[in-house]
Amino acid sequence: MAGQGQSSREPGRPEDATAPPHRRAHTSARDLERYAGLFAARTQVMRSSAMRDLMAITARPEVISLAGGLPDTSSFPPESFAAQMTRIAQESSAQALQYGPTEGFERTKECIRELMAAEDMHPDPDDIIVTTGGQQAIDLVTKTLVDPGDPVICEGPTYPGAVPVFSSYQADTHQVEMDAEGMRIDELEALLDRLEAEGRRPKFIYSVPSFQNPAGVTLSAKRRRRLVEIARERELLVIEDNPYGLLRFGGDPLPPLYQLDGGDYVVYIGTFSKVLSPGIRLGWCVAPPPVMEKIVLGKQAADLCTSTLTQYFVIEYFAEGSWREYIEDLVGIYRSRRDAMLDALERHFPEQAQWTQPEGGLFVWATLPDYIDTGDLLAKALREDVAFVPGAAAYADGRGSSSMRLNYSGSDEDEIREGIRRIGKVVWEQVALYETITGEHGAISSRAEEALAEMDTAELEQAEVLPLRRREGRGEAGR
Ligand SMILES: Cc1ncc(COP(=O)(O)O)c(C=O)c1O
Fold this sequence. Notes:
This protein is an alpha/beta fold. The protein contains 16 helices and 14 strands. The longest helix has 26 residues, at 323-348. The relative contact order is 0.15. The site of pyridoxal-5'-phosphate has 16 residues, from helix 6.
């Protein structure tokens, strides 16, 4: 008899796929061997998204997570959500529960056009497809354009969620360094020349030009113009991924690449995730007709259509007409959180560290002395109940190991300050250790000691004045 509380699995039989994850994790070597013969070659180069791996750990309520890319959904008024969903149930129940067209509803496309018009872009509705988040748009574009071994170019670092997409289609990913003005266009041109000399044509240049995830930097106006010119001169596609363009904290908006190009060589990806809700999983892609035709075929095979229910939600929400105010609210919230993070970094990180100064979006990118590996550092940080994304997740080639991505949108200001203090503490410990090992005693070493003592005092004070709360039920899937 199968003992209660014991596994009834016979030795050598595959585990029950419905078993809880902790049981499935104990797959035997024999099980692995049996399945391995069935796997497609592409699974060998598939990479896990670092954020997914962090998910289980950072879901613990005591952990301050600066890892995910979570927008502040608690600021969306619940009564407005309830009213919109009620209206849908009363007026459009049958349609909202039905399948919809693969391309998305025309009315959803009208909402998309309204949002894009806020950045002076005016695509033809026929050039738009509604997707299951911007993530699916990246996947569909890559599926449409990339054969195994094809070169694709992106920024270094790039959006960590794009890295596993490119690798699962077996792309040969090349990353172009960035500075404070975004992608280095001189390096891009040198790379393009090199590839051309080898007789290789990149399938696309993927860029997040505004408030980039993960670096928080923005491609300058001059470089935007040059990038679009290069695409024309060399007949290359640029994939512009722009989730954050409207989340600007100050200064003048810059023209999106799509606007500069007019949609001939720039394929545009947008999402409602960062200006409304990631839970609705609604994004879109704008592409020239021949490319769009293939994307639609890819989408049919992937999931038939995007959720009709959440498309109805967006349609109702835009009909209410308050989306601009909501984005303004979000900008105000994120600006204060960005300020809190920059201030805390200044206070708690050693002077050998550098970090970006984002003028919008959700992320700061910090780079530590190169003897610190942020993958190892994360294990130490998690012991202090704080998480970040190690920089290597933003590269396809193992670079980025001394950098980290820090998110400020998903935590309140007290949590951000405390989270950065805890990370600063483990960084200082590494600095002190390095100096001890290398025998570099002196001014810096005593500074490390001082900083650590100061942090211990701050920790005591913090514990007394700030009983850190955590909101209930926070996921961590945000990239
Ligand atoms: C640059 C970028 N692209 C795409 C996405 C995917 O977002 P979603 O699938 O929620 O639209 C994200 C999410 O963080 C992102 O930062």
